[in-house]
Amino acid sequence: xxxxLLCILTGGNVDLSVGSVAGFxxxxxxxxxxxxxxxxxxxxxxxxxIGIAIGAWQGFWIAYMGVPAFIATLAGMLIxxxxxxxxxxxxxxxPLPAEYTFIxxxxxxxxxxxxxxxxxxILSGIIATIFYIIGEVKNRNSKKKYNFEVLPFRMFVLKIAxxxxxxxxxxxxxxxxxxxxxxxxxxxxxxxxxxxxxxKTIPGRHxxxxxxxxxxxxxxxxxxxxxxxWVYVNMGFLAALAGIVFTGRLNSATPKSGQNFExxxxxxxxxxxxxxxxxxxxxxxxxxxxxxxGILNNGMSILGVKIDWQQAIKGFVLLAAVxxxxxxxxxxxxx
Length: 335
Hints:
The chain is an all-alpha fold.
C-alpha cells in the first residue's frame, strides 16, 4: 500500500502489476533456494534487485516513453503472471528453509519472559507510547508557534490517551502470545522511513508537488520524469519485498500467489484518504486503510462469507471511498 500510495500521489496513477510482480519474485526466490541451492540471503538480495529492475523497466515506459501507467502496468501484470507460471511449471515449490520464512512467520526473541508474558512486547509498547507523546507535543508546539489551528487541550489529551491505550493494549495482546512478529518490525521500519521521506525530504515534496499540479511543478524546477521513474522503481522494490514476505508466510511459491494484491493496495490507499487526482494522501493513512481492508477480509472469512461475495463487498467499499473523495472535492469547489 505504501508503494501504491506514492504512485497515486503522482496524479492518480496506479500499478496493476503489483500482485504479479510479487508472485514472480516469490517464485524466483524459491527457485534460487530450492532448485539452485543458493544461500537464503543471496536469494533474497538478488530477488529484491530483480524487483527494482522490473520497477525501472516499467518506470522507463511510463516516465520517458509516455505510455499511460494503466497500460504499462497492465502489460506487466500479464507478463509477470505468465512468467510465474512458466518458472513454476504449474506446480508449487515447498517447503522453504526457516531462515527464509522467519521474516513472515517468525517472532523476535524475548529478553525476559515473566509469568508467561513477553517482556519485550510490553517494553516496546511503553517506548512507542513515549515516542508518540513526544512527537505529538512537538507537533502541537510547532503549530502554535506559527499560529496554526490546534485541537483544544482537553481534546488533545484525550486523543493522546486513547491512542496510547490502543498501542499498549495491542502490545499486551502480543505479549500473551509469542511476542513481536518479525513482519511487524519490518512494517514499522517501512512506515517510519516512508513517512520521513514524504514529509521531511525534498524528493517527498516533489512527489506531492507533481501530483498537485504537474505543469507548475515542472516550471518550478521539479524533474517530473525522474520523479515518476523513481516512484515506479520504488514500487518494484516494495512489490518484490511483499512477494518474499508472502511466499515465506505460505512456506511455498505458488502460481496464483499475489492475486488481487493490486486491488487491495489501491483500495487501502483510497480508504486511507488518498485522492484520485493525486497530491493528497499520507503513509499512515494508507496503512490504516490496509488495516481496515485486513479487518474486512478476516471478518468476512470468520463470518463464513463466500469468496465471490467478499470480492463484491470490497468493490462496494472501494467505490464508496472514491465517491466520497470526488464528492468532497466537488463540494469544496462550489464553496
